[in-house]
Write a structure and sequence with these properties.
Elements: H1 17-22, H2 25-31, E1 39-42, E2 49-55, E3 60-66, E4 69-70, E5 74-78, H3 83-98, E6 105-109, E7 114-117, E8 124-125, H4 126-131, H5 137-153, H6 161-171, H7 175-187, H8 203-211, H9 213-228, E9 232-234, E10 243-246, E11 249-252, E12 259-261, H10 264-281, H11 289-316, H12 332-366, H13 372-375, H14 380-399, H15 407-417
Antiparallel strand pairs: 1-2, 2-3, 3-7, 4-5, 6-7, 8-10, 9-12, 10-11
Helix pairs in contact: 5-11, 9-12, 10-11, 10-12, 10-14, 11-12, 12-14
This protein binds 5-S-methyl-5-thio-alpha-D-ribofuranose (SR1) and magnesium ion.
Length: 430
């Protein structure tokens, strides 16, 4: 980690990013030619960082710089800038396992808080593709593969505890972004706070959730899970805005929220955003059935892919982690039991994931950092109807988890909540 020096930190712009790259020989060589032949474009659209794409005669690079405040809010919301260090550390830690499912990181500058990485082209953000109604079936299985590999290999199933605790200690310092997650995901949606954004037709839903002791009790189970279950290195913000895609290539980006937490957090986050895409489609003109069928298929493919790959990676592993010594299960009785123990491990990830999915849905609708899936719906009433439906499912996931034994139960529930409506009492037992 390094210290932010206001005197020496220079915020990059589309005009100055070329000078920065020119002073970094390895990056300059990648672009080729001379700096006056390079073109830089500011393409930032996330909440925290500046992002530039720079093209030269021989190559290109993506430059991401952390800012000492939340970009979308401005300087009134200061933020520790060291999350760039944790993003670089996360990329480096998972790179051997995830390979080409993430962009290659070329460079990290601990003084200017700059990362330079592979420019992805012609990739687009998965969320934008889904919003435009374009199918990306490969993305669901690729992100499942990514999440399963990262979760398995950084957990006690694959890593000796000495190494794991080094990792835990490092990522335990990613405190500023964990403060954002704890507040924005787990706490703020259930209280009145300046940064929450609730559209007026959803006022009754926000009030009902804030008054619902059963919902808050459920959140009180999952919040400590997030804080204490250091199961594996999690991405921490793995949603449809954190994957860049073409029809046959997927890359997971933006690991700055990395943390040692429950593996189900990333799984639930990704499922939650597909679920919200499914409900959001109901707010648009036209017949959503075909689109929704595809999203439902993606949700199924994501979870079944994760489960299948996690178990296969486990079966193929040499078991050097201390969590589950294979020697204990080498005899006939152990071998006979092993399969059910492995399945129980993955089933627990699924149970954790559904709670986190519900909590993520609620935060995106009555908290801060709302998502484009809903924001692009024309007409505030239509948007509210789509969001209310997602909230109704989220509430059910939290207060009646026994109704969701597998992913098919979640998918089957989507149409049941699609017309939940703006009155939260109407679906109280739904
Ligand atoms: C102030 S940062 C808000 C959100 O942006 C990121 O995408 C995370 O989801 C975070 O909670
Ligand atoms: Mg992010």
């Amino acid at each position: 980690m390094s210290t932010y020096e206001k005197r020496t930190y220079r915020r990059l712009t589309a005009e100055t990013v070329s000078q920065y790259l020119a002073a970094t020989p390895a990056l300059a060589a990648r672009l080729g030619g001379a700096p006056d032949q390079w073109t830089g474009r500011d393409v930032a659209d996330g909440n925290l960082n500046s992002v530039f794409l720079v093209d030269g005669p021989e190559g290109s690079v993506c430059v991401k710089q952390a800012l000492p405040y939340v970009r979308v809010a401005g300087e009134s919301w200061p933020l520790d800038i060291n999350h760039a260090f944790f993003e670089a550390s996360y990329s480096a830690r998972v790179a051997p396992f995830v390979g080409r499912l993430a962009p290659e990181l070329f460079h990290f500058d601990p003084e200017q808080f700059v990362l330079a990485m592979e420019k992805l082209e012609p990739h687009i953000i998965l969320r934008n593709g889904l919003s435009a109604g374009v199918p990306y079936p490969q993305a669901a299985t690729d992100v499942a593969e990514y999440a399963a590999r990262a979760a398995f290999h950084t957990s006690d199933l694959a890593t000796p505890f000495e190494r794991k605790f080094e990792d835990v200690a490092l990522f335990a310092k990613n405190l500023a972004l964990q403060r954002i997650s704890v507040d924005l995901v787990f706490t703020d949606p259930y209280i009145e706070v300046w940064r929450n954004k609730v559209i007026p037709p959803l006022g009754a839903w926000a009030e009902a959730l804030r008054a619902d002791v059963n919902v808050k009790s459920a959140v009180a189970r999952w919040r400590p899970l997030y804080l204490t279950k250091a199961q594996s290195l999690i991405h921490g913000d793995l949603h449809s805005g954190s994957a860049m895609v073409t029809p046959d290539d997927t890359r997971v980006i933006d690991g700055e929220f990395a943390w040692f937490g429950p593996s189900g957090f990333d799984v639930g986050d990704f499922i939650a955003h597909y679920v919200m895409a499914w409900f959001a489609k109901g707010g648009h003109a036209g017949e959503p059935a075909a689109y929704r069928a595809r999203i439902a298929a993606d949700i199924a493919a994501f979870w079944s892919g994760y489960e299948r790959r996690f178990l296969a990676i486990w079966d193929a592993s040499d078991g050097v982690g201390d969590g589950f010594p294979p020697s204990h299960f080498a005899d006939p009785a152990g071998r006979a039991r092993l399969n059910s123990l492995q399945r129980a491990y993955v089933a627990e990830i699924f149970r954790d994931a559904l709670g986190f999915a519900a909590i993520k849905i609620i935060r995106r609708i009555i908290g801060n950092a709302q998502i484009a899936d809903f924001l692009v719906i024309e007409g505030i009433e239509r948007r509210a109807e789509a969001q209310a439906a997602a909230l109704a499912l989220a509430r059910s996931l939290l207060i009646a988890p026994e109704r969701f034994r597998d992913i098919a139960d979640v998918i089957a529930a989507l149409p049941r909540f699609a017309t939940a409506g703006l009155d939260p009492l109407a679906t109280r037992n739904g």
